[in-house]
Amino acid sequence: MSGAGTERRVLDEAPGIRAMTWVMAIMLFLTLLAAAGGLGTARAARALDRQLAGRLTVQVVEGEPTRREATTRRVLAALGDREEVVRTVRVPQAELAAMLKPWLGADAADAGLPVPALIDVDLVDTDPATVARVATVVRAVSPATVQVEEHATWMTPVSGFLSSMTWLAGLVVLLMMAATGAVVMLAARAGLEAHRTTIGVMHILGSTDVQIARLFQRRIAIDAGIGSAAGGLGALAVILLIGGQMAALGSELLGSVTLGPTQWLVLALLPFGFVALATFAARVAVLAQLRRTL
């Protein structure tokens, strides 16, 4: 007793089996969104670490413009003599004024407020010893007015937040997969209970537990595949929509929360993983139930 017709007669009326299609669609939809968020933040965290590693900002905090300019020139000269330094860029005062404008207003430049000189420094490597040597040389120019800050230090909270979001997304994915397995097992047991008499007749006619389990897992795999396709297409539309909105914001940090080829491949494999999980869970649940009750 086998074949597509038999499979339909045994399973189509089972409560829970048909509803599982929609449950799988919802589960996969949420899982893909969580996975996309986690993969995107992980990629952004790596990009941020690469951008900030081995970079320093030198501030010349001097109120008197002439002395500030002289100290800045000495700092640039000291940096230019160091082989550890790849590049030095002085931030234009006009750019600093534009950055302060939202807080100080349009007349900030005419108010006579002391604005420090800023110099961005790129180093050859991220070795702490290299950073310490360069910082010591710079501070020696004028210990009272020259400050050195590592980009990686003041961006540590942001990097930590991105890492936390990545781990949280991974936990959500695992929980959703566990919940999916549980739903499939309940649906399979509901199907067995609904067709207990029919399955008993199949046993009398010589069908084995493995043959019966194969009917259930095949049908559940089909329904799980349909649900995965629906949930996957919905999640893809949402991911593309959110990605476009984030890119339109113009934020460098948010714009880095993107998906590369590897991340898209992982997302593409998740629906197949869900179908495989559903098939395996159905087989385990059916065989265990048949051994206990039939």
Automatic annotation (TrEMBL):
Top-level lineage group: Bacteria
Subcellular location per the Swiss-Prot or TrEMBL entry: Cell membrane
Record-annotated membrane-spanning stretches: 165-188, 220-244, 264-286
Keywords per UniProt: Cell cycle, Cell division, Cell membrane, Membrane, Transmembrane, Transmembrane helix
Name by which UniProt lists this protein: Permease
Residue ranges of every copy of the ABC3 transporter permease C-terminal domain listed in the record: 171-287
Single GO biological process annotation from the record: cell division
Gene Ontology CC: one annotated term: plasma membrane
Taxonomic classification: Bacteria, Pseudomonadati, Pseudomonadota, Alphaproteobacteria, Sphingomonadales
Membrane topology: Multi-pass membrane protein
Pfam families: FtsX
